[in-house]
Write a structure and sequence with these properties.
The chain has a domain at about 105-170. Helices cover about 35% and strands about 25% of the residues. It contains nine helices and ten strands. α4 packs across α5 (about 155-170). Keywords: ATP-binding, Cell inner membrane, Cell membrane, Membrane, Nucleotide-binding, Transport.
Length: about 270
């Protein structure tokens, strides 16, 4: 597999609001170094406030780091020095899937209008070409072409999540970033969504980086696992290696917590 994403020295430092009785809280993340290969699935795990969600947002461009470099296909996607120099084609290279899909959908416009926006802003396709591509993408994520005319209130939770996925893959990205993309779904819909993402990943050659507290899903779909604590990567490796032979105490705690919830015969 060829390298598709290279992160070097990514750093973020945030000071909380001052209070007259105590010092302001300071949260520092990084420096983070990581690489993602084409078609690879990487899970980032850790306890609350470990920095994993913040890292996902920085990778997706939703939060600006204080230092570091992100390279996409060996081209500089982001750096402090070139923070205003990203091209439209680069911006669409990394896309994000939202956890609560309903909150990311404007209830006042149709699915077609929601999906048309990223294409209208980041492509030179004509209106008819965009409409055809949107209809084809709806089918690709398991919806109907007719869903182009639906509104949010007309869709189930699972269908809303598929619209969110369609919006993410429309600009033909190279990397998908997702923060707890399955947490808000019931078990049946969750299983369908996982399988759909795996199929799309294989068809499109996508790299998938996701945050999850569900270590069952992590073990099922991730090629590699990154463990974070207090803004640092404390351990990383192949999924089965992390689950069978965790080294760091925090990793052991997370794995033991998972093992206590599943039948022991499934761990052999």
């Amino acid at each position: 597999m060829s390298q598709i994403l290279d992160v070097s020295g990514l750093t973020f430092r945030h000071s909380g609001k001052k209070h007259w009785l105590k010092k302001p809280e300071i949260f520092a993340l990084g420096p983070i170094d990581m690489q993602v290969m084409k078609g690879e699935t990487i899970a980032i795990i850790g306890q609350n406030r470990s920095g994993k969600s913040l890292l996902a947002k920085m990778l997706a461009g939703a939060v600006e780091p204080d230092a570091g470099t992100i390279r996409l296909l060996e081209r500089k996607y982001w750096s402090v020095k070139h923070r205003n120099a990203r091209k439209k084609a680069d911006i669409t290279g990394i896309r994000m899937i939202f956890q609560h899909s309903s909150e990311s959908m404007n209830p006042g416009i149709s699915v077609g209008q929601i999906l048309d926006e990223p294409l209208r802003l980041n492509s030179s396709l004509s209106e008819s070409q965009r409409k055809d591509l949107i209809a084809d993408t709806l089918v690709k994520v398991g919806l109907l072409r007719e869903h182009f005319y639906f509104y949010r209130h007309m869709l189930s939770d699972g269908q809303q999540q598929r619209v969110s996925l369609a919006r993410a893959i429309l600009p033909d990205p190279k990397v998908l970033i997702a923060d707890e993309p399955f947490a808000a779904l019931d078990p049946t819909i969750r299983s369908q969504t996982v399988n759909l993402i795996l199929r799309l990943q294989k068809e499109m050659g996508l790299a998938f980086v996701f945050i999850s507290h569900n270590l069952g899903i992590v073990r099922h779909i991730a090629d590699r696992v990154i463990v974070m604590d207090n803004g640092q990567i404390i351990e990383s490796g192949k999924t089965e290696t992390i689950f069978r032979w965790p080294q760091h105490e925090m990793t052991k705690k997370l794995v033991l917590s998972y093992q206590s919830l599943v039948p022991q015969q499934t761990l052999r």
